[in-house]
Each structure stands twice: as C-alpha cells, then as structure tokens.
Amino acid sequence: PQLFADDVVSFMDAKQIHKAHCVGNSVGSVTCQELAMTHPSRVAKVVLVSTALSGRDNVVKSALQQIVTGWATALAQEGKTTEEIWFSQPTQLDEAVEWINDYWIFDNLVPVSFTQQVASETVQVKLATWLGVLEALDDWDNTERLTPSVTPILSPTLVLWGAQDGIFGYSDQVAVIEALR
Questions:
Q1: Cα-flanking dihedrals φ and ψ of residue 55, to 5°?
Q2: I want to staple 105 with a disulfide (CB 3.0 to 4.6 A). Which of 19, 96, 127, 164 is the partner?
Q3: Is 157 helix (H, G, I), strand (E, B) or coil?
Q4: pLDDT in tens, 50-109
Q5: What mean pLDDT, rounded, does the chain reach?
C-alpha cells in the first residue's frame, strides 16, 4: 500500500495538485489510509468504502489469490517466461467473471449489462497487477499502526459499508472506526 500511496503523490505532483480528497473502495480504501497516514499534508478529507485494517486472513482475498496463482501456474506450465506471465491477461476469463459475480454483489438496481461490463473489464487487468496487489495485501496490516497515538489519520474521515459487501465485512468497518477514534 505504501507504493500505491506514493504513486498517488507522484500523480498529484505531476498534475500540480497540492491537496485532495481521497475516496477509496476496497483496495482503494487501503491506499487512502496509507496516503492519509504517510502524506497527511496532501489529504483534505478521506472516505473509506468497504475498508479494513489488514489484508491478512481474509477468506475472499485468499480465494482470489488461489485463482490468480492458478492462472500464473497454468501459463508457466505452458512454457511462458516470467515476463510473459506478468503481462498476460487471465486465461480463465469465464472463471474470473463468475468469481466477480459471486463476490462483488451489485445492487439489483444496476443493469446486468453494467455488471457484465465491469466484470469483463476487471478480468482484463494484467496478471502482474493482480499478483502485486495480492502480495501487498498479504504484507499490509494497520492493526497496530492506525491508532491516534501511533500513526493517526488527521483528516476528517468517513467510513462507509454496504451490507452486501463480500470482501470486507461489518466487523472490519467497526475495527477501522474504533482505530480512528
């Protein structure tokens, strides 16, 4: 997550944005936490949607990791080089779309065509990105770090959670709220 936050700061610098509101969903919320903790002068307000304090021991992340690792392993068995694997798109698109539809619960007001478009675009992300994000989540743990006495988020912060979120549950949101107090 530190690298993600540093990327955001680099983008802000390139666009000459001194301070911004940070709104992040899921892994994006992890980036917002990191940005607010490590670059507090660059963040005006924070909105964390479907967030958590740690990526460790998350059942859904573990399931996604198995799928992504399976894609990489299948490509390696085909004789692909590491570089070819990293820049490949997932090989089992139907399985990936099915996984997204199972774990990313869309509101029934959203047209099915939109859900299908999001799923099909998401699975087009290169394997290096999936592998990198999952590895970063394994290493990420703000349980002890995100506290008012250690590394506080100084910006006003709103935590939002939808009852249908399949990745980070209600207890994750409560833990973040308690850590922010």
A1: -95, -5
A2: 164
A3: strand
A4: 899 998 877 767 777 887 888 888 889 989 898 888 888 765 556 666 766 676 666 667
A5: 84
Where does the chain have alpha helices with state H? 2-14, 27-38, 59-77, 82-86, 93-103, 112-122, 127-139, 170-180
Structure token digits, residue 153: 């988020």
Q: Which amino acid is located at 110 in the chain?
A: V
Give the CA count within 13 Å in the CB-facing half-sphere of 80.
18
Q: Which amino acid is at 50?
A: S
Q: Which two tokens stand for residue 138?
A: 């394994």
Task: Mark residue 134 as left, alpha or beta (left: phi above 0; alpha: psi -120 to 50; beta: remaining).
Answer: alpha
pTM above threshold 0.85: no
